[in-house]
Design a protein that fits this description.
heterodimer; A: 47 residues; alpha+beta; B: 9 helices; 71% helix
């Protein structure tokens, strides 16, 4: 029978960015406003 | 059947002002991107920082209207992450040189990677508990979990091997993990070393 389990089984983790990081990014996205005037781009964060 | 909106469509929705589209994009690629960054830097906190910087750059670029790679969202994001990883290593000069002196020797600070007897016992116990719980899962979930974690197969390979779609394989993996967490809670098992 094929050997399914290897000795390195604990080396692999399922990882993802924390929900707090995702929330921060979504809040950042909502607050970021980009304005273009006379060829110049302005960034502003409206909290 | 659940219809998945393409990344390119989500990107256009986001550019048109639909903030929910960004939420979908971040959550869709969270694992993949985090895994990619972690595989390069090997540090959870740093991975989190680079993930955050990557998407901040993505958000700024999209809002500026400077994105022009429609249909290739993920490779573009990965490229941004890759560049940020390189920047990080350049900035930190990666490997500072230490010279051993009588008062300071780097080798005195380096630990032995082998586990001591107690930690090895705990690890064996965790492995055995985990295996027992995996055996409690429905067969289809067991199969995906074993292929993914123990055989290190990608979801595409799992999909080809099991004859189900990638989404189904992902769904099975998700439910396997949810069920494992339930089993851990129900049996009051501590899975930490």
């Amino acid at each position: 029978m094929e050997k399914i389990y290897t000795k390195k089984k604990n080396n692999r983790e399922l990882i993802a960015a924390k929900p707090e990081t995702v929330d921060f990014l979504l809040a950042y996205s909502k607050s970021l406003k980009i304005t273009k005037a006379k060829g110049i781009t302005f960034e502003s964060n409206l909290n | 059947m659940e219809v998945q909106i393409e990344d390119s469509q989500l990107v256009s929705h986001y550019i048109q002002g639909d903030e929910r589209a960004m939420s979908v994009l971040i959550n869709r690629h969270n694992s993949r991107l985090t895994g990619f960054i972690y595989s390069k830097v090997g540090d959870r906190e740093l991975t989190e920082d680079i993930f955050q910087d990557t998407f901040m750059k993505v958000i700024r670029t999209l809002k500026r209207g400077a994105y022009n790679e429609e249909g290739k969202f993920l490779p573009w994001v990965m490229r941004i992450a890759h560049n940020l990883i390189i920047d990080h290593f350049r900035k930190n000069n990666r490997m500072p040189m230490f010279n051993a002196t009588d008062s300071y020797n780097i080798f005195a600070l380096m630990g032995d990677e082998d586990l001591n007897a107690e930690k090895q016992l705990i690890k064996d116990q965790i492995d055995s508990d985990l295996l027992k719980m995996i055996k409690e899962l429905p067969e289809d979930q067991q199969e995906v979990l074993e292929m993914r974690l123990y055989k290190d197969m990608s979801f595409k390979e799992i999909s080809n091997n099991t004859g189900v779609s990638i989404n189904t394989a992902l769904g099975r993996m998700r439910y396997a993990l949810i069920n494992l967490r339930k089993l851990v809670d129900a049996n009051n098992i501590v899975l930490t070393n």
